[in-house]
TrEMBL record:
Pfam families: Phage_portal (PF04860). This is Phage portal protein, HK97 family.
Length: 384
């Protein structure tokens, strides 16, 4: 290729014009997807919180760490640790409104897909249970699986229908923002141009191609055909204002609040606000996390323990106190009060604080100060 031909190719020579195209290389439309972002943020927050919980196993009323404890807290299967397993489990439950877990070769497996046939008075059955590229060639009864359903209504579908309106409003706000800073001008066309047999062809190319690239480019030159004259209008109307930015931020905030309400998450926590973080975290645990962990504890207990052993004090409990970070120096007085009132032993409180138990005879005992006495043992005065 000759140098002059390369120059023509690079700068976009036509038959009559020269155009410098710089914006075509860097211009890209970015579409904000607030629905996916808000729901993903909510699901990630909940699943990460529950993955920090400890699955406690009790046998005849006493906390025991055996095979069942190891399965839920360390290694549910050969390909996942407990944190990965719980995050996937809770995410699937929230995204799809249901989740199926089966046991195979003493491993807990989360099903990617399945078909459920429901009955009124007998057990439901599950067919076509698939994990990855493997489909189990058997039918599972309800008593043989762990089946979780988040809500009677599909929260994600309801949110999708609701947030479609917010997406439309957001697109309108983005369009308004673009128009507020748009470039406008006046095109003069004289008879010289309109008399050209190729006028319509040149006009369409100019308006649909060259002007589009010219306005999108950060820096560009726009040569015009003979008979065309363009005058840029640089008035106050093309200056961007902050009102459009506020509109976009308000719509996004409103969408996050609706998602927070749907998943029982305080909107401030979902947005990342840190004001009154302790109060909103307690609210999050009470109304969002606890109902899910209660459901998980009940389903695992009734399927893996059973009624007979449950009545003897055997059960599985999901401990949500592990979610909140504990600063032992800020709660030293509360620890002292819990020990002094015989509420907890020293070892129990050390475990809750993240320390290892001492396993001494005195650290396992429950102590009470002399300030706490039976009211019937008080003598004299008004107590008598």
């Amino acid at each position: 290729m000759k140098f002059i031909d390369w120059i023509k190719y690079f700068f976009g020579f036509g038959k009559d014009t020269l155009y410098l195209d710089e914006g075509a290389l860097v211009s890209q439309e970015i579409q904000l997807a607030i629905e996916a972002f808000a729901i993903s943020t909510a699901v990630s927050l909940i699943s990460n919180a529950i993955s920090k919980c400890e699955f406690k196993t009790y046998v005849y009323g006493e906390e025991i760490k055996g095979d069942e404890y190891y399965l839920w807290n360390i290694e549910p299967n050969k390909n996942q640790n407990s944190s990965q397993f719980i995050q996937e489990f809770i995410s699937k439950l929230l995204y799809e409104n249901e989740c199926l877990i089966i046991e195979s070769n003493e491993q807990l497996i989360i099903a990617d897909d399945f078909t459920q046939k429901e009955y009124a008075v007998v057990e439901n059955i599950f067919k076509n249970v698939r994990r990855g590229d493997m489909t189990f060639d058997r039918t599972f009864k309800m008593s043989e699986v762990l089946y979780f359903k988040y809500s009677n209504d599909d929260v994600r579908k309801l949110l999708s229908n609701l947030l479609k309106g917010y997406n439309n409003l957001l697109n309108m706000a983005i369009g308004k923002y673009k128009r507020s800073g748009g470039r406008k001008g006046i095109m003069d066309i004289d008879s010289t141009a309109t008399g050209d047999p190729k006028f319509q062809e040149k006009f369409d190319e100019l308006m649909n191609t060259r002007f589009k690239k010219y306005f999108e480019a950060e820096n560009a030159v726009l040569p015009l055909h003979k008979g065309f004259k363009y005058n840029e209008q640089n008035g106050e109307g093309n200056k961007k204002s902050t009102s459009e930015i506020v509109d976009i931020a308000s719509i996004t905030k409103e969408a996050f609040e609706r998602v927070g309400q749907a998943f029982k998450i305080p909107p401030a926590l979902l947005r990342g606000d840190i004001a009154d973080i302790e109060k909103i975290t307690d609210n999050f645990l009470t109304f969002c996390v606890d109902p899910i962990t209660d459901m998980v504890g009940e389903e695992t207990t009734r399927k893996r323990i059973g009624r007979k052993d449950f009545l003897k004090g055997c059960y599985i409990k999901v401990d949500t106190t592990c979610i909140k970070h504990i600063d032992i120096f800020s709660i030293a007085e509360k620890f002292d009060k819990l020990i002094a009132s015989a509420g907890y032993s020293v070892d129990e409180l050390r475990i809750k604080a993240g320390d290892t138990p001492l396993n001494a005879w005195w650290s396992k005992k429950h102590w009470i100060t002399k300030n706490y006495q039976d009211v019937e043992n008080l003598k004299g005065g008004e107590s008598d």
